[in-house]
Structure formats: structure tokens, C-alpha cells
Write a structure and sequence with these properties.
Keywords: Ubl conjugation pathway. The protein is built from four helices and two strands; from the N terminus they run ααααββ. It is mainly α. The termini are far apart.
């Protein structure tokens, strides 16, 4: 029988524990999530982001600097965004605080009105709340 301080037993233990650690490391690498989104071309990511609602875009901007840069650089707008895409309305400010649309704005603001989509006979009509369905 081997003694507790037997060098052959210690070598076997070290060999087994090294193999165990190596196998565990390989398994962890196989199971970790892959960063496929970062490998996609920018135009594909812009197209994907353009199908997302405001809340999802805001979460993406907070989660990754690269996503934030893409949203702001390409001016991605959410599907539920009430900012008008027409260039004629691009410079229209908020009626109350004079906030203007900035590229990549995915604010969840409830109080700033967004430019509305058409002109009325007596002037432009605006959304008075970006999250409220009624118009003012």
C-alpha cells in the first residue's frame, strides 16, 4: 500500500488534476455565448435595429458601446418612434422645452412632443407626447 507522502501518488494526482482543469476549460469555452452580433456588417445591424421598439434600442445603447455608436452614427429610429422622418420636420423643436431630434435619439421621454406627420391648413400639427396615442 502507498504511503500518504508517496511521490508517485502525488505525480498521479497532479497529472489527473491538470487533465481535469484542461477539460473543464475546454468545456467552458464551448458553452460560453458567442458574440455573433459583433461579427455582422454594420448595414445588417442597422437593419436589425430598425425593427426594434424604443425600449429595446435604449437597452442596446446602454449595454454596448459599439451598439450605441451604430445607433447614433446611422440615426436608427425605433419602430414606435414618433419622431418624423421627413426632412422638412427634422429641425422642428419641442413646443415646451425646445428639444430637437438628434441622430440616434432613443429617449423614453414622456413629455417632449415629437413633430407630427402633416401640415394643417392653419400650421403644423405636433405629437404632444411621444408615448401617448392622442394628438394635441
Amino acid at each position: 500500500r502507498d504511503a500518504p507522502g508517496d511521490p508517485a501518488l502525488c505525480r498521479l494526482y497532479r497529472h489527473v488534476s491538470h487533465d481535469f482543469l484542461e477539460i473543464r476549460f475546454k468545456i467552458q469555452r464551448l458553452l460560453e455565448p458567442r458574440q455573433y452580433m459583433l461579427l455582422l456588417p454594420e448595414h445588417v445591424m442597422v437593419k436589425i435595429f430598425s425593427y426594434l421598439p424604443t425600449q429595446a434600442l435604449a437597452a442596446l445603447k446602454c449595454s454596448c458601446h459599439y451598439f450605441k455608436q451604430i445607433i447614433e452614427t446611422f440615426g436608427v429610429q425605433a419602430t414606435d418612434s414618433r419622431w418624423n422622418r421627413d426632412p422638412l420636420y427634422r429641425d422642428d423643436p419641442c413646443k415646451q422645452c425646445k428639444k430637437r431630434y438628434e441622430r440616434g435619439d432613443v429617449s423614453l421621454c414622456r413629455w417632449h412632443p415629437k413633430p407630427y406627420h402633416h401640415d394643417l391648413p392653419y400650421g403644423r400639427s405636433y405629437w404632444m407626447c411621444c408615448r401617448r396615442p392622442d394628438r394635441d
